[in-house]
Specification:
This protein has 199 residues and is an alpha+beta fold. The chain is built from three helices and ten strands. The chain is globular and about 45 Å long. Belongs to the cyclophilin-type PPIase family. InterPro entries: Cyclophilin-like_dom_sf, Cyclophilin-type_PPIase_CS, Cyclophilin-type_PPIase_dom, E_coli_cyclophilin_A-like.
Length: 199
């Protein structure tokens, strides 16, 4: 009787949700505070180094999309010269991609929206970032937190700054499909994202 009771307890313990494998991005190179991601686009390759120490929620969220290959075949849909290059949310046909839940805004992490940093896009509500991100193509102090919430920076470009600068200069137009200005006439497509081996 005691043996069967112990066996039952062991079986219950083995199916505990605590034992379940995490799938929120934290499982991607879990011991690496500065993972690097290669972003292959139709204009060239970019490598970003992410700061998991300062922005753990944001970095894990981004890595989750990378791990699921959810950024592949999305576009940079908003380009404002001297300001930002934004993407990750739409296909070349301007169909919106599905999101994981919105994340907490880590804009107060000490990282600022300086030239060639990567940050999360969001709606007017501060905690609405999910999959869209942007590159700063200027020192955008107006996007940093102050009296209001800012936009969470979570890494920096370490290779391909010239590619992002070139993106910021492409010709754009108003898009009826998106009901938005600053949409590139020639789509800039993210072909692939890969987490690079640790340094």
């Amino acid at each position: 009787m005691l043996l069967s009771l112990l066996t039952a307890i062991m079986l219950i313990g083995s199916s505990s949700p605590v034992m379940a494998k995490k799938d929120d991005g934290s499982q991607v190179q879990p011991d690496n505070y500065y993972p690097r991601v290669k972003i292959e686009t139709t204009m060239g390759d970019i490598v970003v180094e992410l700061d998991r120490r300062r922005a753990p929620i944001t970095v894990n969220n981004f890595l989750r999309y990378v791990d699921k290959r959810a950024y592949e075949d999305t576009i940079f849909h908003r380009i404002v010269p001297g300001f930002v290059v934004q993407g990750g949310g739409y296909t070349a046909d301007f169909n919106g991609k599905s999101n994981f839940p919105d994340i907490f805004n880590e804009s107060g992490n000490g990282l600022t929206n300086d030239l060639h940093t990567i940050a999360m896009a969001r709606q007017s509500d501060p905690h609405t970032a999910n999959r869209q991100f942007f590159f700063n193509v200027n020192d955008n102090s107006s996007l940093n937190p102050g009296r209001d919430w800012g936009y969470a920076v979570f890494g920096v470009i370490v290779e391909g700054e010239d590619i992002v600068d070139a993106m910021s200069e492409v010709e754009t137009e108003y898009s009826i499909r998106l009901n938005a200005n600053n949409v590139p006439i020639e789509p800039i497509i993210i072909k692939k994202m890969t987490v690079l081996p640790p340094l």
